[in-house]
Design a protein that fits this description.
24% of the residues lie in helices and 26% in strands. The chain is built from eight helices and 16 strands.
Length: 356
């Protein structure tokens, strides 16, 4: 259990005990249960005092007053990195920090705090316990965000933004450089003025991939693996769903000198039909591309097009889009911007959604 720091008072007012001064100067702890916090995303909320940040792009917002700020994280597994923004200034923070102190001076007035998970769910997750503020400071509800629509992405490493801040080579040891906030998915959502969610797992495929789980068993869960807890799909209903899957089915089998899994088309159709059952009124956009397999593999192209044709025959609220831009490594931030720049005009042309 983390001990609470004490700010000692150096002088005593007449007739006031030292212990009273010390108590008055102690930071105020605001637990995660406080009504001022706005949680947006697919959190594990079973314990209101310990909401668990899991999926990339999930966020907590709150306003606060005073000249001090510290974040408290509880138990953490793996690597979980966050963009912590106060009044438009952003710091990268690890969920393993336990207690993390805002490093810059703060004025005495009202401030805006936003915590966004930048690393992906399968890399790690962390409990948010609350904030420490200056003595006498307040936590206040933020101005409610105004969204034009709700957008859900379902995908793999491309959608997660894996490796997008790496150098020339992809690296997986330090997830600090895997930034979903600058992925094409997040960029498109912001351009649309959308409430954004992303269920994205690096290495995951329709039939098989570089991780043990497949999309059909993962897209509707609270955690990407091991924990069978299902998400409340009726509690947040998207207007628009993007699905970008298939890269790993192709890359994993190619690395083993095997053909694309024979069940890819059938599995893809079944996944989209499950999404349709969950969200019967959503517009669904099927995506392909961004890396070698989605762009250059003839086998994947044929299997995907067969699935798309079968789905679109019976579902008028499904459309498809293929990215022209692709990279031999995982897309970097510049590539994600190009991908978003391709997708947004197409959405407008199709009458599906237009940038704000």
């Amino acid at each position: 259990m983390l001990s609470r720091p004490i700010l000692l008072a150096f002088g005593l007012l007449p007739f006031v005990s030292a212990s009273a001064n010390e108590a008055a100067a102690m930071p105020r702890f605001v637990p995660a249960t406080d009504a001022a916090f706005l949680l947006e995303g697919r959190f594990d909320r079973r314990n209101p005092a310990e909401p668990v940040f899991i999926w990339s792009g999930d966020r907590i917002s709150v306003d606060f007053t005073g000249e001090q700020l510290a974040l408290r994280f509880g138990r953490a597994e793996g690597q979980a990195y966050f963009d912590v923004t106060v009044d438009e200034v952003t710091q990268i923070v690890s969920g393993n920090a336990g207690r993390w102190v805002w490093p810059a001076p703060l004025a005495s007035g009202r401030h805006r705090l936003r915590i966004v998970k930048r690393s992906e769910a399968d890399a790690g997750h962390a409990v948010f316990s609350g904030l420490e503020l200056a003595a006498g400071a307040e936590a206040l509800p933020p101005v409610p965000p105004v969204y034009r629509l709700k957008v859900q992405f379902i995908g793999d490493s491309i959608t997660a933004g894996a490796n997008n801040e790496d150098g020339v080579e992809d690296q997986w040891e330090d997830r600090r450089t895997h930034n979903h906030v600058l992925s094409y998915a997040s960029l498109v959502s912001r351009a649309l003025g959308a409430d954004h969610r992303a269920m994205a797992v690096s290495g995951m495929g329709i039939c098989e991939g570089f991780v043990p789980m497949i999309a059909a068993d993962t897209w509707d869960k609270v955690y990407p693996r091991d924990v069978p807890l299902k998400a409340d799909l009726a509690g947040w209903v998207p207007d628009l769903v993007f699905v970008n899957l298939g890269e790993n089915d192709e890359a994993f089998t190619r690395a083993q000198n095997r053909p694309l899994p024979a069940g890819y088309t059938r599995g893809y159709v079944q996944l989209i039909r499950a999404v349709r059952v969950a969200w019967p009124n959503a517009q669904i956009v099927l995506l392909r591309g961004g890396m070698y397999g989605g762009s250059q593999s003839v086998a994947l192209k044929q299997a995907w097009e067969k699935a798309v044709a079968e789905i679109e025959r019976t579902d008028p609220k499904v459309a498809h889009f293929v990215f022209t831009h692709w990279t031999p490594t995982h897309p970097r931030v510049a590539d994600h911007r190009i991908m978003a720049g391709e997708l947004l005009p197409w959405l407008k042309e199709q009458g599906i959604a237009a940038p704000q």
